[in-house]
Design goal:
The complex is a heterodimer of chains A (621) and B (645). By secondary structure, chain A is of the alpha+beta class. Chain A is built from 22 helices and 11 strands. In chain A, the strands form 2 sheets. In chain A, strands 1, 4, 6, 7, 9 and 10 form a 6-stranded antiparallel beta sheet that branches. A 5-stranded antiparallel beta sheet of chain A has the order 3-2-5-11-8, with no helix packed on it. In chain A, strand 9 and strand 10 form a beta hairpin. In chain A, helix 5 crosses helix 6. Chain A is elongated. Chain A starts with 5 loop residues before the first helix and ends with a helix. Among the domains of chain B are: 36 residues; 140 residues, Sandwich (Lipoxygenase-1); 147 residues, no CATH class. Chain B has 645 residues and is of the alpha+beta class. The chains are: A alpha+beta (621), B alpha+beta (645). Chains A and B meet through helix 1, helix 3, helix 4, helix 19 and helix 22 of A and helix 2, helix 4, helix 5, helix 20 and helix 23 of B.
């Protein structure tokens, strides 16, 4: 992603030059607004100087004042006399007319990058110091009446301009983003021959996601809990103590706080949100921007690499994934990590596979391990349902070993062990931090919090009949069959994996039927193609995907059955990650037009769902 | 067998390879399967309550058919079961290949019992994809079930209809009128069409050049913003004029010919100025009206459908820019102003005009275009080539005729094109100038004929005194504040400023005509100039730098063609600005930036012609910079402001 050609470098330099121009044009202008009344036509002078300078003609501005006009504005400095407001510390105002009576209502001095200096209330105008030629100043509710004793009364004003840090940071941020787009985006977009349509669709989806994040007020019932957890880390570096009363507001109705698990996403999002503090954005949007940025990274990766395009195919086919990237939650980050890790594991050109395949120098190897282990460590620091993906990866690695896919299996094993060790160290550090803060009785503390902060309807100790009717269905005597037939766990889970927003299953039944049909056909097509290819590795991988997905679905079902009925489709998202992995691995066995047909067909349906159902129904700002 | 082979060859010539053909076939097969799977299933659902086991039967028949065993379901009723569901045409249990459609079924007979007894019928539901579901569950709905045989009593209660039968084979008959619901079928069609479109355009076909690769990505993002704004976010009008424009379009939903001036039936299409868009020669309302008519089965309000028309135009431009590098350059100006995005978001006639201008620009300036290939082709040809040339001339003539059927401020572009053509002829760009000139004349003739036809229709409907009728109508329909005959003192303060004594200078100094026009060309939504002042300053500075950069790059390139083109554009733009100013000064103060949109199209042409002389990174910087600033304006100012409406 470096600036790899002279043209780009030139572009970047041009960009910087452009910014300098913008800077010179805007930042050097000191803009003054004056509201002054006079009985007869006359003149108004304004001199400016710093603390040590005397008032001089070359640092002044003069304009005519008329008896039928009150508002005047002018640039105190021009490009010839570049000044920053910071260097203006005192002003002198001279007035002249025939009657010697003036009414000064307001003086406002502005420069981009500084907070406006306002003298617009009688209190503020009392800072006017008479130099000479003024008989008296009469303060009135809306200004000050100046009665002159000489032909040209003079007054001074001391000013203390303050930098507007937010604005500077906005400009800085804007520069970085624009530079990023220029440096990486423009001419370096490689020729996307294979799956070239994916980046286009990803850009389209990205724009929709961003729109959703901007427009919608509350996008999900749980979002507030995520937001509060994220905001905690905006001001902290370490996880909180479980019993800390300061984090009580981060607990959900179930008496659980996202800060008490090991997910790193809140920390990262909190810190990114802190960076965005300079922008005039509300907390909700700042944290949503984190997820939006993750999707932007995926778009850039898709632009640059074919394998990422294939791994991102599952992100195209379900509007629920777009929805998850549009509001703040921990699933989007987990999806993001899954895709990055998948690339490392399955793509031949990845850093990991190159390292495992080649005999590299120890220095290079350690560098690779240093880069890869934090990435793999993230797998342990994401939502727990994604741990099934870890099992899937382990199975795949074992399969590769069994099928002798590595030229030097022993070496590969050693390298992987080193990575795993590094991962364990990272996770260990996180675990140790937690132990230091919360001690060895974390579970007890968690139970105590749950008991104290959970609402009665969801409290473990509440008698079953007084609990929410969706809690502990197994204990209520609901059978497994009934979970599917009466409670529709299967249908609801499927629906919520493909476009249910804010619990409202408002899409027409036909939409879900169509997408179900496409999902079934697509799965059948994948299965049959892979089986027909007789490629042992792909067949085994398919089996792993099926087994892991089934176990995951069963775990989700069990949680709904024994704890609370939460048939969330997003719990099954790791299956999407595994599907992407499978498609990339078994690409040779697949007919590309048919694969494209399925993805584009589902993309069109998803677009319909996201715009016509999601955006239309979600509450707006 | 010859025809299909020819068709295949044709598809291959258009760039469709075998894989794509296979994909297309797979697509069609899949949609066939979906259709058969879903749309053929007719579901009957009956809710019955009985105290004892028995046998019931449901018959269905067409209008002139009798009830037969062949068209019936027989089932056992059971006290433990209440809901009975049957699927007609169930593919899983298919016995014969005679699929029924609900629309053909016009009567149902329910035999709830075999002999005397009591049974409660709570509801009947019949549904098939593509038809509105027929539900009979309220007492009013259940009243439609008519006792036909051996039923002594049918009590309609809140819990259903209690049937008491005295004899054998009691019967209830229900006449139904299924209504087609095209939404889903249409959605299927649209999806298949779009999928096929995407398949053919995207897959495995690299575009013809790598130049300006970022343009289509940015277009795609804008397309998403527009779709979200127009459909997902806002139900109300996005512009003060949108309702009137939509009503004009709506007229053509059900008509093919323009209306008579001042026809009371089109009274709602008149603006406060007493003018209707239907009185203009613009073709966009006819096209949009017919587009909406095609979409009439979709469950969307008309406003959204009309907006879809403009968004669809933008989508076409996006696809063209993906496929063709020349279009990428010509569409570059679309990226730099959020006002253009806004214009493509709500329904109006400017978006279509911009669309036409870009298509025409491509034809005139791209060396690969149909027109330029035609104009540079040799004058001698065989008979087959002759037919081909005639066909191409007709297509081009029709396209160019659109130039005469768009908003009148875009006519400046015709002058611009004419001057460019003269330049081309002068520079001897055509190998055979006489042939080229003849062909241009034919294209112009066809375009003029189309316009003439439109004008004749107008004359036929409104007569030779059309202008007088128009003026009378304006007088009749305008609000008093805008009536031309009213005294100046009674007119709106913004009307006829020159007559009010406002000087030329005051128009700029006091009334800020220039500043407002500029701002309205770069991001003012629904008349609200609520963007921070710094935004407009930034855009102004960037535009000035960009303009200066283009100007000096072209000047220093010493390419005489481009310098003349630059001059032509400057003159045309100034003329347009002058006209817009004059209108604001003498008629009505309307400093709309969109009146200056033809300048953007000309800018596209200028960039296209001089792209070799421009420093690309610097140029890209300007475009991307303005895109980012525009995105800020469209989302944070536009979106959020329009939400408040």
């Amino acid at each position: 992603m470096s600036l790899n050609s002279n043209k780009q470098l030139l572009g970047f330099i041009a960009f910087c030059v452009g910014l300098v121009f913008v800077y010179i044009y805007f930042f050097t202008h000191i803009y003054v607004e004056v509201e002054v009344g006079t009985d007869s036509d006359g003149f108004f002078w304004m001199y400016h100087a710093d603390e040590k300078q005397p008032f001089q003609e070359n640092r002044s501005f003069v304009f005519r004042i008329h008896n039928n006009k009150m508002q005047y504005s002018f640039n105190l400095t021009t490009l010839k006399s570049i000044k920053t407001l910071k260097s203006v510390r005192k002003l002198r105002i001279d007035l002249q007319n025939q009657t010697g009576r003036f009414f000064l209502k307001r003086i406002v001095i502005k420069q981009m990058g500084y907070q406006p200096v306002c003298f617009d209330t009688p209190e503020k105008l009392k800072k006017l110091k008479v130099m000479n030629g003024v008989e008296k100043l009469i303060y009135q509710p809306d200004g000050v009446l100046i009665i002159a004793s000489a032909e040209k009364p003079q007054m001074t004003l001391l000013v203390q301009p303050k930098l507007d840090a937010k604005f500077f940071f906005s400009v800085l941020f804007f520069t970085i983003v624009a530079g990023f787009v220029l440096g990486i985006g423009l001419n370096s977009i490689p020729h996307a021959a294979e799956f070239g349509y994916v980046p286009y669709l990803m850009v389209f989806i990205g724009a929709l996601i961003f729109t959703g994040s901007t427009l919608c007020k509350t996008m999900h019932a749980d979002e507030y809990v995520h937001i509060r957890a994220g905001l905690y880390y905006a001001d902290h570096w370490l996880p909180p103590e479980i019993l800390d009363p300061a984090i009580e507001h981060t607990y959900s109705v179930y008496g659980r706080s996202r800060l008490n698990n090991y997910e790193i996403v809140y920390f990262l999002a909190g810190k990114i949100a802190r960076l965005f503090n300079c922008l005039n954005l509300n907390n909700l949007f700042k944290l949503r921007l984190f997820n939006n940025l993750l999707f932007l990274v995926l778009i850039i990766l898709c632009l640059r690499n074919r394998d990422y395009r294939i791994l991102c195919l599952p992100a195209i086919i379900s509007p629920q994934i777009w929805y998850v990237f549009a509001y703040f939650n921990s699933d989007a980050f987990a999806m993001f990590v899954t895709i990055l890790v998948s690339y490392q594991v399955v793509s031949d050109g990845s850093r990991l596979n190159r390292m495992l395949a080649e005999n590299t120098k120890p220095k290079t190897m350690f560098l690779n391990i240093a880069v890869l282990s934090p990435l793999f460590a993230l797998l342990l620091l994401i939502k727990m349902n994604y741990y099934f993906f870890v099992i899937f990866l382990v199975l795949y690695f074992v399969l590769k070993l069994c099928l002798r896919k590595f030229s030097d299996p022993m070496q590969a094993l050693k390298k992987v062990a080193l990575i795993m060790l590094a991962v364990a160290v990272v996770f260990g550090a996180r675990y140790t931090t937690d132990l230091c803060i919360n001690g060895f009785n974390k579970d007890e503390k968690l139970a105590e919090r749950q008991n104290t902060l959970a609402q009665r309807l969801y409290k473990a100790g509440t008698p079953l009949e007084q609990q929410h009717p969706y809690m502990q269905l197994k204990d209520r005597g609901v059978t497994i069959k009934e979970m599917f037939t009466k409670r529709n766990w299967g249908i609801i889970s499927f629906g919520r994996a493909f476009g249910v927003y804010f619990f409202e299953p408002c899409a027409p039944d036909a939409y879900h039927r169509l997408i179900l049909l496409l999902v079934i056909l697509f799965s059948l097509y994948l299965t049959i193609s892979i089986l027909r290819s007789r490629d042992v590795e792909s067949v085994w991988l398919l089996l792993f995907v099926i087994v892991c997905s089934l176990i995951m679905a069963a775990a989700s079902f069990w949680a709904s059955y024994t704890l609370g009925f939460q048939a969330h489709g997003r719990y099954l998202f790791p299956a999407f990650g595994m599907t992407g992995f499978l498609v990339l691995q078994a690409l040779k066995a697949l007919n590309k037009p048919i694969l494209n047909f399925f993805t584009i067909g589902m993309f069109i349906l998803s677009t319909y769902s996201f715009i016509f159902i999601g955006l239309l129904q979600l509450p707006k700002i | 067998m010859k025809k299909p082979i020819k068709f295949l060859t044709f598809l291959q010539q258009t760039g469709c390879n075998n894989k794509q053909l296979f994909a297309l076939s797979a697509l069609l097969l899949c949609f066939g399967a979906i259709y058969i799977y879903f749309s053929s299933r007719i579901v009957f659902e009956v809710e019955l309550h009985t105290d004892s086991k028995g046998i019931a039967q449901i018959f269905y028949a067409g209008k002139s058919q009798g009830y037969t065993e062949k068209r019936s379901f027989r089932f056992q009723t059971n006290p433990k079961k209440t809901t009975y569901r049957f699927i007609l045409n169930d593919l899983m249990a298919i016995k014969r290949l005679s699929l029924h459609t609900l629309i053909a079924i016009r009567k149902i007979r329910i035999d709830p019992l075999e002999s005397a007894g009591k049974i409660r019928l709570r509801s009947v539901l019949i549904e098939q994809m593509g038809c509105a579901p027929l539900r009979f569950e309220t007492s009013d709905e259940l009243r439609l079930l008519k006792p036909a045989n051996a039923i002594t009593k049918a009590d309609i209660q809140s819990e259903g209809i209690l049937i008491t039968a005295s004899g054998d084979d009691p019967q209830l008959e229900l006449k139904i009128k299924p209504c087609l619901n095209y939404t889903l079928i249409f959605a299927l069609l649209l999806s298949s069409f779009l999928t096929a479109f995407l398949l053919v355009f995207f897959f495995d076909r690299p575009s013809n050049s790598d130049a300006f690769k970022y343009t289509p990505y940015l277009m795609m993002a804008i397309f998403a913003f527009m779709s979200a704004t127009a459909i997902g976010a806002f139900r109300g009008p996005l512009h003060a004029d949108e309702a009137i424009q939509m009503k004009a379009g709506r007229y053509y939903k059900n008509h093919w010919l323009p209306p008579e001036i001042c026809d009371p039936a089109i009274a709602d299409t008149y603006s406060v100025y007493g003018a209707s868009r239907l009185e203009k020669m613009e073709i966009v309302y006819l096209l949009a009206g017919k587009f909406v008519r095609v979409l009439q089965f979709a469950e969307l309000n008309d406003l959204a459908k009309f907006r879809l028309f403009n968004i669809f135009l933008f989508f076409i431009l996006t696809v063209l820019s993906i496929r063709n590098a020349d279009y990428r350059v010509l569409t570059l100006p679309l990226l730099i102003s959020p006002q253009i995005w806004y214009v493509f978001t709500y329904f109006n006639s400017e978006a279509f005009a911009m669309f036409v201008l870009i298509l025409v620009s491509y034809q005139v300036f791209s060396t690969q275009s149909l027109m330029n290939r035609l104009l540079t082709a040799p004058g001698e040809h065989g008979r087959v080539e002759l037919y081909l040339i005639i066909g191409q001339l007709i297509v081009l003539g029709l396209l160019f005729s659109l130039l005469l059927l768009i908003k009148s401020n875009f006519y400046i572009f015709i002058i611009f094109l004419f001057l460019c053509l003269l330049l081309k002829l002068y520079r001897k760009e055509f190998p055979n100038p006489l042939t080229a000139l003849k062909r241009i004349a034919v294209i112009m003739l066809i375009a003029a004929s189309v316009f003439g036809l439109r004008y004749s229709v107008e004359l036929a409907i409104n007569g030779a005194d059309r202008q007088q009728k128009y003026l009378d109508c304006v007088e009749k329909m305008a609000l008093p504040l805008y009536k031309p005959s009213n005294d100046l003192s009674k007119l709106h303060l913004f009307m006829r400023l020159r007559d009010r004594g406002v000087s030329f200078n005051e128009m700029f100094a006091g009334r800020n005509w220039g500043i407002i026009s500029f701002c309205r060309a770069f991001g003012i939504y629904f008349f609200k100039p609520a963007a921070p002042d710094a935004y407009y300053k930034l855009v102004l500075a960037t535009s000035l730098f960009f303009g200066a950069f283009l100007f000096f790059s072209i000047l220093f390139s010493r390419n005489i063609d481009n310098i003349i083109l630059l001059m032509i554009i400057l003159v045309s733009s100034l003329l347009l600005i002058g006209l817009s100013f004059r209108h604001s000064w003498t008629v009505d103060f309307q400093p709309h930036g969109r009146y200056l949109f033809p300048v953007f199209s000309m800018l596209g042409v200028l960039i296209f012609q001089s792209v070799k002389d421009l420093n690309k990174p610097l140029f890209n910087f300007f475009v991307i910079f303005m895109f980012i600033v525009s995105a800020y304006s469209y989302i944070f100012i536009g979106f959020l402001q329009l939400l408040e409406l």
